[in-house]
Amino acid sequence: MATPTAEREQWGSRIGFVLAAAGSAIGLGNIWRFPFKTGENGGAAFVILYLACILFICLPYLFAELSLGRNSQKNPVGAIKAIKEKGPWSLVGGLCVLTGVFILSYYGVIAGWAFGYIFKDIVAPAVDASQYFSNFIANPIAVIPLLGLFMLLTIGVVVGGVEQGIERWAKVLMPVLLVLMLVVIFRSVTLPGAGAGLDFYLNPDFSKIDGGVIVEALGQAFFSLSLGMGAMITYGSYLPKRENLLVSGGYVALFDTAIALMAGLMIFPAVFAMGATPNEGPALIFVVLPQVFEAMPLGSFIGAVFFILLSIAALTSTVSLLEVVVSYFVDDTSFTRKKAAWLVGGFTFAFGVPSALANGAVGWLTDMSWLVSNDIVGQNPSFLDIMDFIWGNMSLGMGALLLSIFVGWVWGSENAIEELQQGSGDTFKGAITKSWSIFLKYICPIFILVILANIVGINLIEWVINLFS
């Protein structure tokens, strides 16, 4: 059993932890990625698969990260060293820290786009949405300052510390996010013709399910909870021993999933009501939705509200990404929290500039097929695409796979169970613990391998289906 770090910061309350951890998970992945993945993969049937993956795969793994963090009271590197001081396993914690830095570098660029779109109708009210988006993201005078602004906001929250910074702002931002989403949902579902969107989103057509849809649902469910990069280890390390990890982790997953489902209720009724198509991919948010907003009554107001809430969701995620790295420097070096936040934030901004310039501003960053094969990342990959492939897909997946193996086999599921039982009373005993151990040691690693294989173009589920068909 690891010895807690002296004077370790802690969350002031369960609701503070739940809102902060849910805020870490809730971000562009829920409000931007979930709707377009749902639109591309057939609607309601994809949603049902997504919910099943959250419940049976992601939640057991979430408990593993939280238990490892609280047991050690340290960042991902320190948490692994507290259990396995020698050997290569500490490199997995280092991978989590690096993943946090590099995801934040390009995530902040996209977050800056969302923030800039709040003012779109003031800057260019009559410009075609597609033309505006392509010009906007290619304009370094716009996107680099927006990246810098978002990093300043993120640093400001993290400098405040766990309770007075992250928790205090989570208690403000998450309720505001919820209220704004309800405003947009109400306007969306009351539009004439919104019923077709609700039918697409809520009435499943199971004939649309194939191996590809299953893998996409699994990948979206797993990555939507910020798993595999050490964020939940770090946030779990600030929890007191009396806290019920099962209840707290369950609330985090519930809140995160609810926001994703609400994002669908915001978007699909409006998209169908305005005669647009739901399978527009990543352009759904920045191109299709502005066109939808322009065509509806009070569209400028609703559009501004939508991008305010998207910016809030992005900020709660960037805070957790920075906190993973800052926690490492505070725990393992002589850096103060303030010094670490500014140092890491400054480095991240500098490294984010190439991603900001990779969308039309600089040709050789916009199309890097001269360096990377189109077969690996996609046609004409940009610097941002390559960063997302390496850190947002491969590194995140590898981190999750190795952490599940570490908790299940190296630390041992029995030790993780003992940690989970602290503060949980009689709710985690008997057959429940045996089932969780099986999920953690066998099922989670297998399904994470399926995700990793799909990232490199190998659909194992489709292969199995074809094998037995």
From TrEMBL:
<keyword id="KW-0769">Symport</keyword>
<keyword id="KW-0813">Transport</keyword>
<feature type="transmembrane region" description="Helical">
    <location>
        <begin position="91"/>
        <end position="116"/>
    </location>
</feature>
<dbReference type="InterPro" id="IPR037272">
    <property type="entry name" value="SNS_sf"/>
</dbReference>
<feature type="transmembrane region" description="Helical">
    <location>
        <begin position="341"/>
        <end position="365"/>
    </location>
</feature>
<feature type="transmembrane region" description="Helical">
    <location>
        <begin position="251"/>
        <end position="276"/>
    </location>
</feature>
<dbReference type="GO" id="GO:0016020">
    <property type="term" value="C:membrane"/>
</dbReference>
<feature type="transmembrane region" description="Helical">
    <location>
        <begin position="44"/>
        <end position="64"/>
    </location>
</feature>
<feature type="transmembrane region" description="Helical">
    <location>
        <begin position="172"/>
        <end position="198"/>
    </location>
</feature>
<comment type="similarity">
    <text>Belongs to the sodium:neurotransmitter symporter (SNF) (TC 2.A.22) family.</text>
</comment>
<protein>
    <recommendedName>
        <fullName>Transporter</fullName>
    </recommendedName>
</protein>
<feature type="transmembrane region" description="Helical">
    <location>
        <begin position="389"/>
        <end position="411"/>
    </location>
</feature>
<feature type="transmembrane region" description="Helical">
    <location>
        <begin position="296"/>
        <end position="329"/>
    </location>
</feature>
<keyword id="KW-0472">Membrane</keyword>
<feature type="transmembrane region" description="Helical">
    <location>
        <begin position="136"/>
        <end position="160"/>
    </location>
</feature>
<feature type="transmembrane region" description="Helical">
    <location>
        <begin position="218"/>
        <end position="239"/>
    </location>
</feature>
<dbReference type="InterPro" id="IPR047218">
    <property type="entry name" value="YocR/YhdH-like"/>
</dbReference>
<keyword id="KW-1133">Transmembrane helix</keyword>
<dbReference type="GO" id="GO:0015293">
    <property type="term" value="F:symporter activity"/>
</dbReference>
<feature type="transmembrane region" description="Helical">
    <location>
        <begin position="12"/>
        <end position="32"/>
    </location>
</feature>
<dbReference type="InterPro" id="IPR000175">
    <property type="entry name" value="Na/ntran_symport"/>
</dbReference>
<keyword id="KW-0812">Transmembrane</keyword>
<dbReference type="Pfam" id="PF00209">
    <property type="entry name" value="SNF"/>
</dbReference>
<feature type="transmembrane region" description="Helical">
    <location>
        <begin position="439"/>
        <end position="461"/>
    </location>
</feature>
